[in-house]
Design a protein that fits this description.
Strands 1-3-2 form a three-stranded antiparallel sheet. About 55% of the residues lie in helices and about 10% in strands. The chain has a single domain, classed as Multidrug-efflux Transporter Regulator, Chain: A, Domain 2. The longest helix has 16 residues. Strand 2 and strand 3 form a beta hairpin. The protein contains five helices and three strands. By secondary structure, it is mainly alpha-helical.
Length: about 90
């Protein structure tokens, strides 16, 4: 049974005008961590949706290279590495 506070990949992608394949590709490239799954289907909660939105801002709006965007969106970076990636893009 799907969680009520989570949406499927198609709905998550549609919030940002993306194809679900773009979100899956971002996962493979390390921009997004693996989401929870129910019955093999990806589910995105509030945090997951925010990360998709952040990836969208980095890649589509900011045209940030994949490696820098992954630092910002993965949730694995320290504050210093996150800041360095953003500062490098702004420069």
């Amino acid at each position: 049974m799907a969680r009520r506070d989570a949406v499927l990949i198609g709905d998550a992608a549609a919030l940002y005008g993306l194809a679900p394949s773009a979100v899956r590709w971002w996962e493979r490239q390390g921009l997004l961590g693996p989401p929870d799954r129910v019955g093999g289907k990806r589910l995105y909660d509030d945090i997951g949706l925010r990360r998709v939105g952040l990836a969208y801002l980095c890649r589509v709006v900011g045209r940030m290279p994949l490696d820098q965007a992954a630092v910002v969106t993965s949730g694995q970076a320290t504050r210093d590495t996150w800041r360095h990636a953003v500062d490098a893009r702004l420069a």
